[in-house]
Design goal:
Blueprint (H helix, E strand, L loop, with lengths): L6 E5 L4 H11 L6 E3 L12 E2 L5 H4 L9 E4 L5 H4 L2 H21 L4 E5 L11 H15 L4 E6 L3 E2 L7 H10 L9 E2 H12 L5 E6 H7 L2
Parallel strand pairs: 1-2, 1-4, 2-3, 4-5, 5-6, 6-9, 7-8
Helix pairs in contact: 1-7, 4-5, 7-8
Length: about 210
């Protein structure tokens, strides 16, 4: 079954995937409002509501009806500065965003997690992503979609040496390990938002690539 969300809440609109998703949302004639808090101002649009500031500070101030919420937040340990700072963004802030989205009436939450997310993993990054997933599931959403992309491909505003080196190889790996274009991930997220179902859905990278064609 397909639904037509009209009021969207988006976190991470200035990120690699979030930029593509925002463009997609603002081009949809059925969407009346995209509420997209961001650290820096976004280009003005008739259907865009863009509070500017730190997301953690803005969350209590967000108002208005929300049908569907997208969380495109994500960092790296190097970018965050420490494991503690990384966890504060990729776990704590994601959960706070989800809770506020629920308070505003959202019934479907779509979150970008990561390939290999596992709360029992010995790899810190994967463990935090897995713990974030478990905590979101515990919020008991009517509909929760967890997207687990492999390495995101595309032009970032900041330079990430490891991703630059890995990208050529990630294009040729099999199945879910192959890299995925951020634009394709954004298209997949929008298609998933239009599908109405119950409970939790985990979508692996090869499925996201197929949906994003």
């Amino acid at each position: 079954m397909y639904l037509t969300p009209q009021h969207i809440l988006l976190a991470g609109a200035t990120g690699l995937t979030g930029e593509h998703l925002l463009d997609r949302l603002l081009s949809e004639p059925t969407i009346n409002r995209v509420l997209a808090p961001s650290r820096r101002p976004l280009a003005e649009h008739a259907h865009l509501d863009n509070p500017v500031g730190e997301l953690g500070d803005l969350l209590p101030q967000l108002q208005g009806r929300v049908d569907v919420a997208f969380c495109c937040l994500g960092s790296t340990i190097k970018q965050a500065g420490s494991q503690e700072a990384f966890r504060a963004i990729d776990h704590d802030l994601v959960l706070a965003f989800a809770q506020r989205a629920r308070e505003l009436g959202a019934r479907h939450l779509l979150v970008i997690s990561a390939l290999g997310a596992d709360a029992k993993s010995g790899v810190f990054y994967n463990r935090v992503k897995g713990e974030m997933e478990q905590a979101l599931i515990a919020q008991d959403w009517p509909q929760l979609t967890l997207a687990r992309p492999s390495l995101l491909l595309g032009a970032r505003s900041e330079f990430r040496l490891g991703e630059q080196l890995a990208a050529p190889f990630m294009r040729w790996l099999p199945g879910k390990y192959r890299g995925i274009q951020a634009a394709a991930l954004a298209r997949a997220l929008w298609r998933l938002a239009l599908e109405e179902s119950d409970g939790v859905r985990i979508v692996e990278s090869h499925q996201l690539r197929r949906l994003g064609r």
